[in-house]
């Protein structure tokens, strides 16, 4: 990938902005750092946010607490019920809307050019038509709006199977065009940075940043992570944008924008 497509040389590692987000953890710190930077860039505005597959509101509720209006689209009625309770407990029920539906139906659920920020995390691995979902995400964005997409990494899945001694499964993942481990795999596909970025570009989005998420968080022994969680968090942030570490993370986070 050309250097100009990844404009960020890293993730902000200074004191976290209070704009949005729960206390940072090594598993989510990279995503929140990118989102905070976007929210800080538009600090004078209250944004319209769409969270596709947002489940129980791990991102939606903190964004609503920061004053933004969030619509969560999710196929699970149980998850949406939990989201509604969570939003009420946080005192932001009036700023959180729950819509039942799956990613493949997104184009029918959201008005075109009506959203400032779209979150689409851990969705493209499971939908029928990922290109269609990304096209719907792009269509939902206002010109200049941004999208945060989180996808499963093929490289991490291969390495995980190898280190656990499942060489046949690793070989299947490596050979399969979609990065699947066979018909019993719970995911329909996995990505690398280039294939994920190509999917977004095909929908007319401009990829601004690509980071690895959970580069080390899933590898560190629990005792080490519990002993010095801040050191692990800082290591995650430091490695997130640096190949090859970025490319072997459990997930890849792409931040893209609809052109003005």
What keyword list fits this structure?
alpha/beta; 7-stranded mixed beta sheet; 260 residues; 36% helix; 10 helices; 7 strands; 2 domains; Rossmann fold
CATH superfamily of the largest domain: Vaccinia Virus protein VP39
Estimated helix fraction? 25-40%
What's the gyration radius in Å? 18 Å
Oligomerization state: single chain
Question: Low-confidence runs (pLDDT<50, min 5 residues)?
Answer: 1-9, 12-20
The span between the termini is: 23 Å
Shape: globular
Structural class: alpha/beta
Strand order of the largest sheet: 3-2-1-4-5-7-6
CATH topology of the largest domain: Rossmann fold
Query: How many beta-strand segments?
Result: 7
Explain how this protein is built.
The structure is a single chain. This protein has about 260 residues and is of the alpha/beta class. The chain folds into 2 domains: about 220 residues, Rossmann fold; about 35 residues, no CATH class. About 35% of the residues lie in helices and about 20% in strands. The radius of gyration is 18 Å and the shape is globular. The N terminus is likely disordered.
């Amino acid at each position: 990938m050309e250097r100009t497509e990844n404009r960020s040389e890293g993730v902000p590692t200074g004191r976290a902005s209070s704009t949005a987000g729960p206390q940072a953890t090594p598993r989510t710190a990279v995503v929140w750092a990118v989102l905070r930077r976007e929210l800080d860039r538009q600090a004078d505005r209250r944004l319209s946010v769409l969270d596709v597959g947002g489940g129980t509101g791990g991102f939606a509720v903190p964004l609503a607490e920061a004053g933004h209006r969030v619509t969560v689209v999710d196929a699970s009625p149980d998850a949406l019920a939990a989201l509604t309770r969570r939003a009420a407990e946080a005192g932001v029920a009036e700023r959180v809307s729950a819509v039942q539906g799956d990613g493949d139906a997104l184009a029918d659920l959201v008005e075109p050019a009506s959203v400032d920020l779209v979150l689409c995390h851990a969705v493209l691995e499971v939908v029928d038509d990922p290109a269609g979902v990304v096209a719907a995400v792009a269509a939902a964005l206002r010109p200049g709006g941004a999208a945060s997409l989180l996808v499963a990494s093929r490289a991490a899945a291969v390495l995980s199977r190898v280190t656990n001694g499942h060489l046949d499964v690793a070989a299947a993942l490596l050979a399969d065009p979609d990065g699947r481990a066979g018909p019993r795999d719970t995911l329909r596909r996995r990505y690398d940075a280039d294939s994920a970025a190509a999917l977004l570009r095909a929908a007319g989005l401009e990829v601004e940043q690509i980071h690895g998420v959970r580069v080390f968080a899933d590898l560190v022994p629990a005792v080490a992570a519990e002993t010095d969680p801040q050191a692990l968090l800082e290591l995650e942030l430091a490695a997130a944008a640096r190949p090859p570490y970025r490319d072997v993370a459990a997930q890849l986070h792409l931040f893209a924008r609809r052109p003005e």
